[in-house]
Amino acid sequence: MLRWFKNVWVLGIKELKSLLSDLVLMGLMVVVLSVAIYSVATSITTEVRHASVAILDADHSILSYQIRDALLPPYFQKPVEIQREDVDKAMDKGNYVFVLDIPAHFERDVLAGRSPSVQVLADATSVTQAGIGINYLTQIIQGKASEFLHKPGANALSPVTPVVNIQFNPNGQSHWYISTMGVVSNLTLLAIILVGAAVIREREHGTIEQLLVMPVRPSEIVMAKILTNGAVIAIAALLSLWLVVHYWLDVPINGSIPLFTLGMVIYLFSVSSLGIWLATLAPTMPQFGLLSLPIYVVMRLLSGAESPLESMPEFFQYITWLSPETQFTQFSQDVLFRDAGFQTVWPKILMMTVAGALFLALALSRFRSMLAQHS
Q1: What is the Cα–Cα distance from 212 to 375, expressed in whole angstroms?
Q2: What is the CA radius of gyration of the chain?
Q3: Is 126 helix (H, G, I), strand (E, B) or coil?
């Protein structure tokens, strides 16, 4: 047993030197865990931000101008007045996300208590902005109409006063969530590519024959690749979480970093084993990329990092719970956002461990077959 650990250690040193000498992979790791996370977190938002608005104002009254003036940045761009015959063409071209159609005699009908309608046209290809923005516009129109009539708003007339407490992200800033989940999701990509590339590199450089004449076992070779690459990725991910997410983007980390590190190490063991298994199925690096990228994309989209699992069809909810990335995504949200303890997340850690053992068994079986073909 001591010999096994010694061989893993020696092979791990060799893997580390090989990885550090590969400037392309090292550059990929740095970019994916720094520039990519920052740019995505600051560029993509789930909120209404600078939505373009056009107004078809047939009334030109004080009330219609008050509604127009209430559409302010950063939620909306400055409204643009448009002619009726240009509305369809502008919406077809995607020039505006929203078009407000204020009818003639709007102010007069409001004063007379006739409850006139304001038509809001929305470009639903911008799903998030259209869905949330319609609610914003409705509140603005109703609020300005109540102020114009000197009437209390709907909240003042309600017999119940809701008290809203937003946990973990009180201001609803999307970059808090996107940046943290970016680190979590990018770990999968790096682990699959780096470990898979280590196997492909042995085969393409011809060093696989050197391993065959050495007194080492396939399990020692596989574990050296998993542990070395996993350790490098884990250190890089912790630096990204601390420097990029916490300091650069000013996102608070509420949970236990040691507990998150434990779960991340187990997850990296699981997904690195998956990467080795995929690498043994593909003879060349391009084929390995074509095989691994679709698997990564599907795992990420169904992991709950992009949308809640509850919004998926029930069948896919059951299937995706078998994925280690789903377990790690839920684990990370529990630990980093909700400050959950081990007693809460241990089932997810267990699921990642079981998945890792399964992928390791598959990887060892295929790796032995690959070595036998070269012997």
Answers
A1: 7
A2: 28
A3: coil
Domain boundaries, the chain: 2-44+172-374, 53-157
The rounded distance, in Å, linking the Cα atoms of 346 and 337 is 16
> Do 211 and 202 meet the contact criterion of CB atoms below 8 Å apart?
yes
Domain 53-157 has CATH 2.70.180.20: no
Closest CA to 101 of 111, 114, 115, 116: 116
Give the pLDDT confidence of 180-211 residue by residue, as tens digits: 888 988 889 899 988 888 888 777 666 666 66
Contact by Cβ (8 Å): 132, 89: no
pLDDT in tens, 109-146: 888 888 888 999 998 887 777 778 888 898 898 888 88
β-bridge pairing 53-57 and 80-81: parallel
pLDDT tens-digit series, residues 45-95 = 767 888 899 999 999 999 999 999 999 888 898 999 998 888 888 888 888
HEC string of 338-369?
A: CCCCHHHHHHHHHHHHHHHHHHHHHHHHHHHH
CA angle 243, 38, 169 (to 5 degrees): 80
